Amino acid sequence: MLRIAVLVSGGGTNLQAVIDRIEDGTIRNTEIAMVISNNKNAKALERAEKHNIPSCCISPKDFESREVFNKTLLRTLTDLNPDLIVLAGFMVVIPPEMIRAFKNRIINIHPSLIPSFCGTGYYGLRVHEAALARGVKISGATVHFVDEGTDTGPIILQKAVKVKPTDTPEVLQRRIMEEAEWQIMPKAIDLIAAGKVKVVDGVAFIEEETA
Ligand code: GAR
Fold this sequence. Notes:
Layout: E1 2-8, H1 13-23, E2 30-37, H2 43-50, E3 55-57, H3 66-80, E4 84-87, H4 96-101, E5 106-110, H5 125-134, E6 138-145, E7 155-162, H6 169-193, E8 197-200, E9 203-206
Parallel strand pairs: 1-2, 1-4, 2-3, 4-5
Antiparallel strand pairs: 5-6, 6-7, 8-9
The structure holds glycinamide ribonucleotide (GAR).
Glycinamide ribonucleotide binds next to helix 1, strand 5 and helix 6.
């Protein structure tokens, strides 16, 4: 059984997709051990509660320094000892100590086709604003392992989504969530739970389904 911790900041629609796919059996052999939010008002926390999933809030605002917040987050996760940490719209920079402690055991969903529109400053709606400003005709989403860079870790899955001339950032964001994020994030977790994802020399490989 793959025990996962899901880290969230806001709406939690990706968390919801993971919960739903575990409940309907699409994600196999996986349980959510804990949902952690850095924002006590995150709708994601309500979603966890509704499904009887343990949850807590660890907010930088409640600590005297970033260092103490980082240590608390790391200690919480070390005590929980999940097999996998899932960043599902977690808008906090992951401390390097945590990345080292959970090497190739942290995954993130990013709302573009990496390496486009990623890195420092590209998060949430900003990603879609930048994609529309550049006039790309295709965007999408990426699930990747987290390394010490920003959005630079091994890519696990990507899905492309067409951009329409009438798109606003909000409309494009929603379509990328529906058509890409809510599909590839659950799929990546299922593949990891099945032991089918390997990282070799900084590149992720997926073992082919045989059946
Ligand atoms: C999602 O679109 C996710 O890809 C993005 O934030 C949104 C969270 O939505 N993440 C990033 O931009 C990370 N760089 P959700 O809370 O409804 O899942």
